[in-house]
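Subject: Sanity check before I submit

Could someone independently write out the structure tokens for this chain? I want to compare against mine line by line before I put it in a report. The sequence has 226 residues.
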Amino acid sequence: MTPNRGLALFRFWFAVLGFSAVFFQLTHLLQNVPGATAWNFFSYFTIESNIIAVLTLAIAGRYAWKGNSPRWLELLRGAATIYMTITGIVYNLLLSNIDVNTPIPWINVVLHFTIPTIMVIDWLVDLPGTRVPVRTSLVWLAFPLLYLAYSLIRGPLVDWYPYPFLDPRISGYEAVAAMSVAIAAAAFLFALIAAFSTRLHIARTPAEATSRTVETNLKSDAGTVA
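---
Independent answer below. Compare away.
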């Protein structure tokens, strides 16, 4: 695999942008919002998924600069893409008109729109060189499920929930369960789409190889005739 410096710089830039958004958001909350705590801040799925995305972009950028993409990195990129897709879609469908402690406009755009979009683009532009089995892609769902369990267990202990749809005090545990199942089903669908998308690269490769072979043969024949 040859180095791709353009892709590496693309990833580095958005890793810095995402890190800046998380850092300045935390600083703003701790300095300006009474009662805000770092623990609550890092208990938002948006923040956790963006941190994973930032680290993934930075690591993937380094490997793109070197011209290498190990298998574990491809799986990490798939996981980060799934989590950021969940973040972007859930925010736009359920939270766009609700205060989720992102009052600064540019930070809100970066965390909920820019980085989710960039992760999907990065995944599609640089699909894994080998197919990701559906069974493997299901491992990506472990983190969202653990996050759900963490939020529901911690919520009653600290009397705080990160999102209204996870707060049983608002509409009861039945509504929380229904919404959790719906989000889990969506995450499962995203994982399947990501896994099947890796077949596009595999399917394209033989065709490209055949095209190159034919082109080489034609040039060889032309040289023989000459």
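---
OP: Matches mine. For the report I'm noting this point. The chain is about 80% helix and 0% strand.
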